[in-house]
Structure formats: structure tokens, C-alpha cells
Amino acid sequence: MSTEAAPPDAIRHDWTVAEIQAIHDLPLLDLVHRAASVHRAHHDPADIQRASLLSIKTGGCPEDCAYCPQSAHHKEAGLGRQRLMPVEAVLREAAAAKAAGATRFCMGAAWRQPKDGPEFDAVLAMVRGVRGLGMEACVTLGMLTPSQAERLAEAGLTAYNHNLDTGPDFYGDIISTRTYADRLDTLQAVREAGIGVCCGGIIGMGEGVRDRAAMLQVLANHAPHPESVPINALVAVEGTPLQDRPPVDPLDLVRMCATARIVMPKARVRLSAGRRALTREAQVLCFLAGANSIFYGERLLTTANNEADADAQLLRDIGVPVPAVLGLAAAE
């Protein structure tokens, strides 16, 4: 199996799992070099987007995802339920995120699938409000019907996040309440509505390298590719079935970012959950390998994230322009 670099402008939708695994398993320096070459052929390496993430409805989810403390199945996680936030409160958070340097505002609700009615209408108002601030708007609400996707598109939604989490063969070890086909159906509804697709997965849940390659293969064989591909490292939360999983090797995260960049050259590869455990040097290596987005802000949906001031300094240190207001002290 040849792993020679294809032309940097080559866009493929016919990858095999074996091809992707062979790329993933290249000697690390060769892999990063190849990924960096592809990245620079399609992106400005100084363009690292800062996105902010807010949980607008927390806890009580009927899904049984083994990694997630928001699942109602994992009561030992001790995460209380919170109702959907008021629209005005969400838009205040979005305005603060914009003032602090974020250009994309992501909103997550712990639903299996939203119900049509006042709460879904409120989410549509949130989307319109975020877009009115001049920001990209992304939501993750669980499964969608085609009509719901169309209404989100009409509201101006930039992207819909719906991760595959892992490869098809390992998926059943992590989730039993929603099928892989369910996830793919939602992605199809989002795409057909004209909304950007944000879809990636999590490493460190006990899957093998082949499972990681299989997840990327499903994404890379979509035409077009997802506009955004989040690469997450498991944050092992006490009270969830995966609470005792060992930390992910940072170089595994580098390999996933690099491989995603090579097989989906134009996607924005988002270095997402688990980044807090990385050293500055490991984060820089991920950027070199093609990651070009981070979540900015000191909390993700339910877990801690890097401090905004530290992120600002890191980006400045590698030569990425960052407005002074990105630092929390400057924003006060």
C-alpha cells in the first residue's frame, strides 16, 4: 500500500480504511510533514479560529453515551439538570464571547432530538441573534428531522455539530440508544438543508487504531467533506462508564489531527475536548499537523477548558495575531 503524498490539491472521496490507517501509522515526523504541506496548500497557517461553546440545556439526556456525564443513565456523575436557557441570556454570552475574540458561537442542548414547539423556536431565535452579532452560529441538539434542519437553515445556522464519535464497528461498545445510521441520517438532513456539517469523534475510549481510521474514512468519503472535523480526546469523567480510561497520549492526538488534515484537506480541523491536558508544545505540534481551530473559554459543555489568557499568549507566541481583548483581563 503506497503512502506517498498525493498532490496537495487532491480531494478524494474513495478512501479505504487500510489507506487511512497506513497514513496514520507513518513515522510521526513524516506524517506531520505531509499534513503540514497539505494544510498550507489549502489554508493560511496563521488562521486558527477561536470558537466559544455554551451548554444551553444541560443534563437529563436519555441517550446512554458511555463518555457523557449528561446522560440520565449515569446518575453517579452527579450532574444536575438545567432547563433551556433564556434567549437573552444566551445572546449575552455570545456578545461577551465576541468581545473576547471568538468568531464562532456553538450552543449545545442535551436532547436526544428536539421537539417542535416553544423550545425549538427559542433555539431558532438564539441562532438568529448570534448571526445578528456577526458571528458564525453552530448548534448540537441531537437528531434532527429534515423539516427541523430546514428551519435552522432559514434562521441562518452556519453549522450543525453531530459527531460520529468512533468507527462503526466500535460504536456499539459506546452507545446503545442511537444507531450509527441514525447519526448518518441527521448528517444527510443537515447537508440537504444547506447547513455546514461539523462532525468528528473522540479518541481514548478503548477503540483501536483501525476504529479511528474507520471513523475518518466515513467522514472523508462524504461528498462534500464536512466543513468542520472536531478531534476530541476523552475527558474521563467520574461517574461515567469510561471514568477509569487512561489519558490519551498527546502524540495520538497529533496523529489524528494530521490524518484528518490529509484525507479532508479543506476541512477546518478542530482541536477540541482534551486540549487542557496538552502541553503548549503538544498543542503547537497539532497546529503544525493541520489543526486550525480551538475552543476558547474556560468551560466546554460540562468540563473545564484552557484559560483564555493562556490561549491568547500561546497563539501570540507562535505568531498568530490575537486582538488584545482576547485576554480576560483586557476584556474586563
Description:
- Helix 3 (87-99) runs parallel beside helix 4, helix 5 (146-155) packs across helix 7 (180-192) and helix 9 packs parallel to helix 10.
- The longest helix is centred in the first third of the chain and has 15 residues, at 28-42.
- A 9-stranded parallel beta sheet has the order 5-4-3-2-1-9-8-7-6.
- It is 38% helix and 13% strand.
- The protein is of the alpha/beta class.
- It has helices spanning 17-24, 28-42, 87-99, 118-132, 146-155, 168-171, 180-192, 209-220, 250-263, 280-288, 308-317, 328-331; strands at residues 49-57, 104-109, 136-140, 159-161, 196-198, 201-203, 228-233, 268-271, 291-295.
Q: How would a textbook summarize the main sheet?
A: 9 strands, parallel
Structural class: alpha/beta
- What value does the Rg take, in angstroms? 19 Å
Alpha-carbon distance between the termini?
A: 55 Å
Q: What would you call the quaternary organization?
A: single chain
What strand order characterises the main sheet?
5-4-3-2-1-9-8-7-6
Count of DSSP helices?
12
Number of strands: 9
Element pattern in H and E = HHEHEHEHEHHEEHEHEHEHH
In which range does the helix fraction lie?
25-40%
How would you state the average pLDDT, rounded?
89
Share of β-strand residues: 5-15%
Shape: globular
List unreliable stretches of 5+ residues. 299-304, 326-332
